[in-house]
Amino acid sequence: MKIIKFGGKSLSNGTGINAVISIIQNKINNNEKFVVIVSARGNATDELENILELAKQGKEYKTQWQEFKSYQISPAPAIDFSKEFQLLEKIFEGVQLLEEVSLKIKDLVLAQGELLAAKMISKLLNDKGIKAKNIDSRKIIVTDEQYGNAVVLEEESKKRCQTFIDELEENTLAILTGFIANNEQGSTTTLGRNGSNYSAALFANFLNAEELQNYTHVDGIYTANPDLVEEARIIDQISFQEANELASFGASILHAKTIIPLIEKNIPLRILNTFNSESKGTLICRNGQKKGVKSISVKSGVSLINLEGKGLLGKIGVDARIFNTLGRENINIGVISQGSSERGIGFVVNSKDDDRAVKSLRKEFSNDFSNKDVSNITTINDVSVVSIVGQNLQGFSKPYQSLVKNNIEILLINNNISGNNISLLIDNQQVHKAINIIHSQIFGVAKNINIAIFGKGTVGGSLIEQILKSQEQILRRKETRLNIFAVAGSKNLLLQKEGIGNNWKSEFKNAKQTKDSIKEVIAFAEQHHLENLIAIDNTASSEFIKSYPLLIENGFDLVSSNKIANTVGFDFYKSLRKELKTHNKQYLYETNVGAGLPLIDTIKLLHDSGENITRIKGVFSGSLSYIFNAFSESEESFSSIVKQAMEKGFTEPDPREDLCGNDVARKLLILARELDLENELDEVQIRNLIPENLRGGQVDNFLQRIEELDHPFELLKEAQEKDHVLRYVGDLHGDLQQSKGELDVSLVSVPKNSALGQLSGSNSIFEIYTESYGENPIVIQGAGAGAAVTARGVFGDLLRIAEKR
Length: 805
What we know:
The protein is an alpha/beta fold. It folds into 4 domains: 2-285, Carbamate kinase, CATH 3.40.1160.10; 295-443, VC0802-like, CATH 3.30.2130.10; 447-594, NAD(P)-binding Rossmann-like Domain (Rossmann fold); 600-785, Dihydrodipicolinate Reductase, domain 2 (2-Layer Sandwich), CATH 3.30.360. Helix content is 39%, strand content 22%. The protein is built from 27 helices and 30 strands. The strands form 5 sheets. It has an 8-stranded mixed β-sheet, with helices on both faces. It has a 7-stranded mixed β-sheet with strand order 21-20-19-18-22-23-24, sandwiched between helices. It has a 6-stranded antiparallel β-sheet with strand order 13-14-12-15-17-16. The longest helix has 25 residues, at 103-127. It is globular and about 80 Å long.
């Protein structure tokens, strides 16, 4: 099956829509199996947005509304659009009356463009004897509650997509709407502008399509915009990664999120021209044709903001203040240029946000202006970002010299971390000339990482699947081959020199049994001369950590989700780090606290930079976060919520392991030791949530008596002040410049509108108080429980080590 997507210009009245019908007819005549995804026809989305804005401002909009309706019905005047038109008319009237419009209403209005398009195409095909059915993709694609740029809930969407295919009548061509979806409450959401391409990629992923064909108004992806560069030529074939970069740097026919679902299933994307049947287009697939520069893109509608001041010299945290200030205003920062002295910082924002950005920064740095630490915040408008995808600085010397010789003023230059893309900020009046110069200059004339995974439970199993799924992408993008040569369980050991594959589970069941998997893995690696060794500990074993030194001595770097090594006696903790230093090995354990959140790394960076961390406080346990979030917001009993948490896999099989507080205590101790504190686990003050009479015995007996917890917790809930909620909190405080700090784990009542009080689901939250930030903590929040989240964090640690290898 193929996914065929038609863009708005392809569906425009006249030549466009007639060509689309002809393309579909030809494919049916060739017995191709496919599903069609459509955008709104012509400029429908822009027109609807404009009408909505006129209504909001109380201006006359009915003339444009009549023109919109006439255009939409023109290809088939007998079509019944009364339902859609009546809905829009009611909304426009209401918006004009209230003089305001919510993002929710805006999404509902913009969604009608795609709905009208699908209905029209289906009508025209049926009139020609082709059995077609328009499908409202809101019944299939499910998102979160973010309007305007919603996040797709892929698992549920995939299930619904399969159901839709199964229920589709035989010999019926499905015409689906792109761009639009529903959230879980049934309200219309949209996937962002150009989101129809993203919709098409999602359907291709869900249906395991052999190819996604995107019909547009151009012949494919060019080496530069042919409207600006006459010599621009079509790129026959590029890789997913290159296409993703082109989208990120402003290529108009690609959506930044489109490529991701295709990479996952290795589904090729072909860009084709609706109006030129002779063009073979551009193929986007796993591998590009060759390395080197692929395209020059231009992103207009941006402004450069410069923040300057002699008082910024050597001052820590200036960039963080900028990012935090603009983040609170939901302003995205593009290209950044910063001197090492922090005397001046320049960055790019969308032009529509520049006034708001400057106002918020002036407010943030008002004291710095008074102290003359900041001298000026200036804005340069009418500029564009020119990006050369696939170019490094070393190879850019000649184009750069040509720009200088031609008096092209480069306001800012930046290259990304990989060094393969360069971005220049240039005045709009010089852009046309600049890209022709660059184009003329440019186009004119794997290492192996061998991995041993110990522990194949929920986290270990998820990690293996994630690595296997990403292997090809990482090989292509990073020239790094991730080879899992060993998987060790409690009894079985699977060893394969060339690495395990997708059938690893069945092979593991039949693998050899072993009494000492660690020594066998070490011997196997030595026998087969395996290099770049990484051992991953996904166990919860206190015995396994005793072998860490042995693994280090035999050439392994370590990644671990096992907290025990960092919470046993301080002597072992220091000894292990001495062993790592002696053998020049790394030991990463970001998931020890906060699952996949970047917490430990952040604290390390702050501490190593000399920042005085004065306190760390938060909800450390995703399991207890879920329990108390649910308990505070519902009328259900405490015991029933604990059982729900067990069913969702948020707690250990014996929930007392979570309720006793030891897990939170271990996490708190890990953070204390990151600050070079010498605390021991028995020094943590823990409030055990389990009554003494229920702490012993088998888990089955505890679960039979779990209702005994209901009354005392209900009393705690009722005793709170108004608008307060319960949270199980870890708190590291005291004089953290001494050898030891104070560590408390307790159940507290906090205001519902506080950072801790607003926590939801199984999320964790951490507040890091520092001397520089004063009363305003650094807050890190996100998913705090779940095997997939933890595995993703372990994967991140693995890749960090692989990168340095």
